[in-house]
């Protein structure tokens, strides 16, 4: 079996064993490259997950081409019918990567990565090797270089919850808002919880802040607002 013959099988518009294996391996490698970056960022959807998504989309594309090719002679069949379902169906998997915690939403980038990786798999399955490879490179550029660029421009706003527990009833929150303004912290909403069985109050401030905010100094000043301050916590969830 010569190299030229193998290349012909790989680039063939008809589904064959050699071409299918090559496409699955290539899509798995491209997906793994993207998954490594996600795992490096601490996301649950890492190398194995993204690689499987890419390979699954490639397999869907191969099946989509194979069925009309074999059973309908490419006359009455639609080679894109099964593949089209990947575009909409992958949204459910992407939604699973999004974590919503009472005002704090995480995983949007990973959901987008899942979706576009599926498209990379479809591209490989249809024989668009160069386009799929270039798309993978562009994805990695967006996830790495643009991420650093955003941080340099201080565009990395984060949604957090500042939870202040007081050993007394507290109704006045304006002093805290003044401190937040001082440190450039934007308060989007406030939740107050009173404990009637014991004199405690929990203040939950939903905030948007930049990554370079000095929370240590901010917390020191917050502590000085009331001598009844028990604890100050920076978290992603509201204490109901």
Please write out the topology:
Blueprint: H1 3-10, H2 17-40, H3 47-71, H4 81-96, E1 99-101, E2 104-106, H5 108-125, H6 129-152, E3 157-166, H7 174-182, E4 186-195, E5 200-210, H8 215-223, E6 229-235
Antiparallel strand pairs: 1-2, 3-5, 3-6, 4-5
Helix pairs in contact: 2-3, 2-5, 2-6, 3-4, 3-5, 4-5, 5-6
Uncertain segments of ≥5 residues (pLDDT<50)? none
Question: How widely separated are the two ends?
Answer: 68 Å
Helicity, in percent? 55-70%
What is the string of SSEs from the N terminus onward?
HHHHEEHHEHEEHE
Report the principal-axis shape.
elongated
Content-based structural category: alpha+beta
Describe the protein's architecture and organization.
The chain has 240 residues and is an alpha+beta fold. It has helices at residues 3-10, 17-40, 47-71, 81-96, 108-125, 129-152, 174-182, 215-223; strands at 99-101, 104-106, 157-166, 186-195, 200-210, 229-235. The protein is elongated, with a radius of gyration of 26 Å.
Which characteristics define this entry?
6 strands; 8 helices; elongated; alpha+beta; 55% helix; four-stranded antiparallel beta sheet; 240 residues; two-stranded antiparallel ribbon
Short structural description:
The chain is α+β, with helices and mostly antiparallel strands and 240 residues long. 55% of the residues lie in helices and 18% in strands.
């Amino acid at each position: 079996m010569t190299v030229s013959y193998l290349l012909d099988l790989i680039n063939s518009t008809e589904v064959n064993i050699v071409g299918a294996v090559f496409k699955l391996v290539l899509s798995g490698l491209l997906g793994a490259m993207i998954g490594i970056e996600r795992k490096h960022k601490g996301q649950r959807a890492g190398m194995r997950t993204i690689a499987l998504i890419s390979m699954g989309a490639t397999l869907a594309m191969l099946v989509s081409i194979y069925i009309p090719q074999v059973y309908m002679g490419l006359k009455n069949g639609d080679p894109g019918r099964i593949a089209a379902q990947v575009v909409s169906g992958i949204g459910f998997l992407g939604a699973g990567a999004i974590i919503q915690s009472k005002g704090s939403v995480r995983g949007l980038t990973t959901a987008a990565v899942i979706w576009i990786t599926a498209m990379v798999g479809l591209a490989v399955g249809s024989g668009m090797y160069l386009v799929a490879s270039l798309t993978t490179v562009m994805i990695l550029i967006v996830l790495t270089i643009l991420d650093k660029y955003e941080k340099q421009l201080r565009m990395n706003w984060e949604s957090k919850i500042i939870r202040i527990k007081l050993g007394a009833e507290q109704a006045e929150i304006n002093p805290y808002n003044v401190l937040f303004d001082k440190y450039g912290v934007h308060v989007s909403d406030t939740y107050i919880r009173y404990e009637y069985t014991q004199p405690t109050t929990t203040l939950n401030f939903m905030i948007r802040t930049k990554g370079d905010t000095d929370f240590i100094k901010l917390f020191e000043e917050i502590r000085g607002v009331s001598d009844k301050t028990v604890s100050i916590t920076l978290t992603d969830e509201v204490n109901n």
